[in-house]
């Protein structure tokens, strides 16, 4: 019975996330006309710069690919090289996939995976602009869950992900599947939200918090444990605290209810942080 309950709870989480991000994807034009974060407030260009993207990277993107859903720049941390095969977990409208595509070049390959059909549709529309600007056919998007990637075993040089793993109801399986698809010696660079201390119970129940990458987050040490138990090595965690405070300062509607539910004299960054995780699969 417990197993059935766990499965039902996991599916309920996926359904909430899929619907929340589906609504974001369907909000055509609202993310950039004017340039607003799809979370509901804040300039998406300013957010991207704040979490590590430079002007040159942002200038190359198809319109609408940046929806203000980032909490870091994993493409920079990954140090992508020409000719590499990259998988982007939770690729959304293609933001990081398109940046990665330019870094790996015509001889490389980028596979974006997202479980929300509306996001895949949006990314594939954006793909046409990317192909016209680069002349390359090196990026594709696949519908699938990050716990069970539609990618062959040991076929990937690098995995990137941006503020997505925290949304999964089965994070250990996400880490195991990342290890499965990486080639021996392959590496990953993940930007995610992590907890510094447990969140109040009322926040954990809020759908806004879930879609906002907060309620599903785990303690940073749990992230490291899951990565190591999946068989990865050289695991390094780097905190980036400014992201959460920036979102709170913009009074983003998705965070407003979260802030109101926090204990007195506290702020979101007392509980959560943006976290870079890098790791490597052992050589064969």
Write out key terms for the chains shown.
Rossmann fold, 19% strand, globular, seven-stranded mixed β-sheet, 284 residues, single chain, 12 helices, alpha/beta
Characterization of the model:
It is a single chain. By secondary structure, this protein is α/β, with parallel strands linked by helices. About 40% of the residues lie in helices and about 20% in strands. It has a single domain (about 1-280), classed as Rossmann fold, CATH 3.40.50. It contains twelve helices and seven strands. It has a seven-stranded mixed beta sheet with strand order 3-2-1-4-5-7-6, sandwiched between helices. The chain is globular, with a radius of gyration of 18 Å. Mean pLDDT is about 80; it is low at about 30-40.
């Amino acid at each position: 019975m417990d197993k059935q309950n766990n499965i039902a709870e996991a599916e309920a989480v996926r359904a909430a996330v899929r619907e929340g991000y589906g609504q974001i994807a369907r909000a055509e034009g609202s993310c950039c006309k004017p340039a607003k974060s799809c979370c509901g407030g804040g300039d998406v260009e300013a957010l991207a710069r704040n979490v590590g993207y430079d002007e040159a990277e942002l200038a190359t993107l198809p319109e609408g690919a940046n929806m203000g859903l980032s909490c870091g720049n994993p493409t920079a941390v990954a140090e992508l090289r020409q000719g590499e095969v990259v998988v982007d977990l939770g690729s959304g409208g293609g933001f990081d996939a398109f940046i990665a595509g330019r870094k790996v070049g015509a001889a490389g390959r980028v596979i974006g995976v997202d479980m929300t059909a509306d996001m895949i549709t949006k990314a594939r529309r954006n793909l046409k602009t990317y192909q016209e600007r680069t002349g390359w056919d090196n990026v594709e998007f696949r519908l699938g869950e990050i716990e069970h990637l539609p990618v062959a075993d040991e076929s990937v040089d690098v995995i990137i992900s941006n503020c997505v793993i925290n949304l999964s109801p089965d994070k250990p399986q996400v880490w195991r599947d990342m290890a499965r698809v990486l080639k021996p010696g392959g590496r990953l660079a993940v930007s995610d939200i992590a907890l510094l201390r447990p969140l109040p119970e009322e926040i954990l129940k809020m759908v806004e918090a879930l879609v906002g990458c907060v309620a599903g987050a785990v303690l940073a040490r749990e992230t490291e444990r899951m990565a190591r138990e999946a068989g990865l090595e050289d695991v390094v965690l780097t905190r980036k605290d400014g992201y959460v405070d920036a979102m709170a300062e913009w009074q983003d509607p998705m965070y407003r209810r979260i802030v109101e539910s926090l204990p007195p004299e506290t702020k979101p960054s007392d509980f959560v942080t943006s976290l870079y995780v890098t790791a490597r699969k052992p050589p064969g």
